[in-house]
Amino acid sequence: MLRMQDVSKIYRTDTVETHALRQFSLQVNEGEFVSVTGPSGSGKTTFLNIAGLLEEASGGIYELDGRDVAGLNDSERSRLRNEKIGFIFQSFNLIPELDVFDNVDVPLRYRGFDAAERRQRIERVLDIVGLASRSKHLPSQLSGGQQQRVAIARALAGDPRFLLADEPTGNLDSQMADSVMELLTEINGAGTTIIMVTHEPSLAERAQRNIHVRDGQVFDGEPEIHLAAQTA
Amino acid sequence: MFRYYLKLGLFSIRKNPVLSSLMVAAIAVGIGACMTILNIDYVMSGNPIPHRSDVLYHVQVDSWDPNDPYEDPDLPPEQVTYLDGHALWQAQAARRQVLSYKSSRVVQPAGDDERPFAALTRSTTSDFFAMFDTPFLYGGGWDASADNNEDYVVVIGREVNERVFGGRDSVGETIVLNNQPYRVMGVMDAWEPLPKFYDVNNGPFEEVEELFIPFSVSIANEMGSAGNTSCWKPAEGGWEGRLASECIWMQLWVELHGEREKEAYLAFLDGYAESQKAAGRFPRPVNNRLNNVTEWMDDREVVAEDVNVLLGIAVLFLIVCLLNTIGLLLAKVARRTGDISLRRALGASRRAVFAQYIVEAGMIGAAGGVLGIGMTWLGLQGIRGLYGELDFIARLVAMDWPIIFMAVGLAIVAALAAALYPTWRACRVHPASQLKAL
Q: Do A110 and B342 touch (CB under 8 A)?
C-alpha cells in the first residue's frame, strides 16, 4: 500500500518559493492500477518522484508498504527503491551502450543477486515482454515499442510491489501504445500495483481509478473516475 | 561489483575516447615529468650498501688551517693526510680499516696487437674487499701480509679481465701495469654501489675502479692521486714532502659494531689528535667525526640541491596536470548526469555511484601510469641526450623496476585524488531533475 497524507513539496530559490505539492493526500491499495492526470505543471511528476523516493517531501506523511520513509538515509532509500519500485519513463531511458540483457541487469546488480539468479530473472521478464530472442540487441536496434518493453522488463526484473510509469506511451504511436498498455494491464492482473501518469484521457480510462491533480493537490472539483467500479 | 564497475569503466572510456585520451595524456605527462626527476633522485639517494651501512664509518680528523675551518660551520676535512691516514690505519684500532685513494695505471696487455690502455685504479688496503662486501667472479682480495710486504698483487674488474684475458679465470696470472708485473688475486664481478660511497668527494656517481692494488705498493712506487687533493699550506720536497705534508687526498673507513665500539674509536681519535697537537700539528680544536654510510651521504649532500628543486617543480607540474584532469572529469560527469540519474532511479546508492566513478578514474590512472612509464623513459633519454654519453649520466638515467611500479601506483593515486571532487559531484546529481530530460 502507498499512502500520502498532507504531503507538500516546496522548491526554494533565493527569491522564489514554488509549491509543487500542497496537502496532497492519496492512498493506493495493493494491486490497483491508478492513472494520474492533470495539466502540465500541476504536480504529477513531482508526486511520482516523491512516490518513487527520488525526492523527499517537504512535509506530510508518506508511507510505502506500511513504512514511513521520512528520515531514511540515502542507502536505505536506494535499497527501498530498488526492492519495491520499478520505473517506466516516457523516453525509455535505456543505456545505449548496453544490450537488452545488460540493461535489464542494471537494477539486479544493485540488488546484489548472484549471476545465476540474475540470469534467471532476466530471461523470465524478457519472456514476459516478448523479447527473449532480442537479448543481445542494442537499444538502437529495436523499435520504440520494443525499447519500452525492455524498460518494462527492467522495471519488473526485481519483482517490485509498485510500477511507477511516467507517460509510458508518450513517445509511441497508437498501435505500439496500445500494445504497451495491454502489457501493463497484464502485469497489473498478475498483482503488481501500477501508478501511471498520463495526459491521455483514453489511456487514463484503462486504469481502474483516475486521480486528477491540479495546483499540486488531488482535485476534488470533479469526481475521480472509478473505472474499476464501472467495469465491475 | 568491482568487475561490473570495471566493465562500466571500459564502456565509458570507449564512449568518450577523446575526453578519456586527454585525461590519460594529462596524467601521463605529469607522471612522466615527475618520475623522470624522481628516478634520478632515487638513484642518487639510494643506500649503496644497505646490509652494512650502519657498521661502516667514515673517519674525519681536523688537521686543518688554524685560521679557517675546512668548511663552515667548523667542519673537519672530508679526506685525510697520508700522515694521519697511515698512522690511524697502522694502529688497527677498529675491527677493520681501509685506507685508500684514487689513482690510475696503464694496463699493458700481452701480445703486440693489443694497445695499452689507462684504467682507473684504487690504491687500498686489504680490508677493502671484506668491509665493502665486494662480489668476486674469480678468486678474492689479498691479505694483510701483502699490504705489509708490498706484494705486487692486483684485483681486476670484469672489463679488464675481458680485454686482457678474454674473460677466463685469470687468478694467478700476471698483468703488467706501468711496466711492472702484478699477480692477479681476483676478478671482481659487476659492482655498482650508487652512490660510490667510499669516495664521494671524487664523484659519487663515478664508476667503480677497474684495478685495485695494495696501498703500500702505490706509495712505494710514488703513485700520486688521480682524485681531489686539498692543502692549507704548500707541500714541499717532492714525493717525501708530499707524504709529510698537510695535504688531504685519502679516504679512511673503519668497521665498528655498536655504540660502544664507536665511542671507543672516537676516544682513540681524540687521543691521536692530542698526540699530534703535542707534536706541533693539529692547530685547530679537536674535532674528530665518525659518520656511517647514510650519515656521510647526507653530510656530503650527495643528492644535489638543484635536483630537489627540480623535483619540487616536477611535483607542481604533476599537480597542474591533475587540475586539468579534474576539469576533464568534471566535464565527463556533466555529460553523464542522465546515466547517473537513471542508475540512481534503478536503485544505485550514492556510494555505488561513487564506487563506479572511482573505479573508472583508477582505470584512467592506470592507463596514464603505463603511458607515464614511456614518458619517463623519454624524459631520461632526453637528459642523456642533453648531457651526452657520460658514464655517470648513463647510470643516473637507468630506469629501475621500483620506479616503474611507483609510476603506475602514483598515477593511480593521483587519478583517484583528482577524481574525488568530480565523483562527489556525480553523487550529488539530483536524479529527479534529470530523468524527465533524458
A: no
Q: Which value does ipTM take for this structure?
A: 0.85
Q: Give CA–CA dist A186/B140, Å, rounded.
A: 92
Query: Given a cut of 80, is residue B234 above it in pLDDT?
Result: yes
Q: Indicate if the pLDDT at residue B426 is higher than 90.
A: no
Average pLDDT over residues B331-340: 83
Of A49, A97, A166, the CB nearest to B11: A97
> Between A144-156 and A174-189, two packed helices, what is the crossing angle to 10 degrees?
20
Taking residues B26-40, report their average pLDDT. Answer: 84
Cβ separation A75–B436 shorter than 8 A = no
Euclidean distance between CA atoms A169 and A182, whole angstroms: 11
pLDDT over 90 (residue B164): yes
In the numeric block, which cell numbers belong to residue A51? 512516490
- Taking the alpha carbons at both ends of chain B, their separation in whole angstroms is 26
Whether residues A95 and B342 touch (CB distance < 8 A) is answered with yes
- Comparison of pLDDT for A221 and B261, the residue scoring more: B261
B432 chain-A contacts, CB cut-off 8 A: 49, 54-55
What is the 3 state secondary structure string of A97-147? CCCHHHHHHHHHHHHCCCHHHHHHHHHHHHHHCCCHHHCCCCHHHCCHHHH
Domain ranges for chain A: 31-42+75-231
Its CATH architecture, for the domain A31-42+75-231, is 3-Layer(aba) Sandwich (3.40)
The phi, psi pair for A31, rounded to 5°, reads 85, 0
